[in-house]
Amino acid sequence: MPSSRPLRADARRNREALLSAAREAFLGGDADAHVEDIARSAGVAVGTLYRHFETREALIEEVYRAEVDDLCSAPSDLLDQYAPDEALRRFLLLLVDHAAVGKGMSLALESIMATDSPVFDDARTRMADALTQLLNAGSAAGTVRNDVSGSTLLRALGGICGMRATKGWLEEARQITALLFDGLRHPAPQAT
Predict the structure, then answer these.
(1) I want to staple 39 with a disulfide (CB 3.0 to 4.6 A). Which of 49, 55, 99, 157 is the partner?
(2) pTM for the whole structure
(3) Over the stretch 60-73, which tens digit does the pLDDT of each residue have?
């Protein structure tokens, strides 16, 4: 298991090169990429890979975590650049694109689904929190309805992105997401 001490510069470069090579392999659809191939692509020995990641599954988890980190850091940047409703729209499309990229990694991720890894629960929580941040900003600005939670919206997107095996799914997913977004901009129905 990696130490909690800061990595030396060369060790940090090696770790980053390994993550980059693994990301390229897994997201490129090579779910069966061997650690030897990943190490060679990163320009390091297999032993170096195992010094940073105890198992292939640990490497896959870290690649996925990095993807989720990038995704979940987007709301603040989007809110800095756009009105809250536009920031939400753009983030919804980023989530769809994340699912498209994840399609290439899905087989690799299957190897960690049978483990006790908290990586998926953590990712769902973080994505729902990111959506909640955007929904709250939109609600405060009066441009997004206030009766939908981030976790509910994430479930809806999960259903949309569950069509990944269908030919042409990405374009359809983007269209359905646009419909979902339009529904989020209409006020909640009033109780009678």
Answers:
(1) 49
(2) 0.80
(3) 888 888 888 999 99
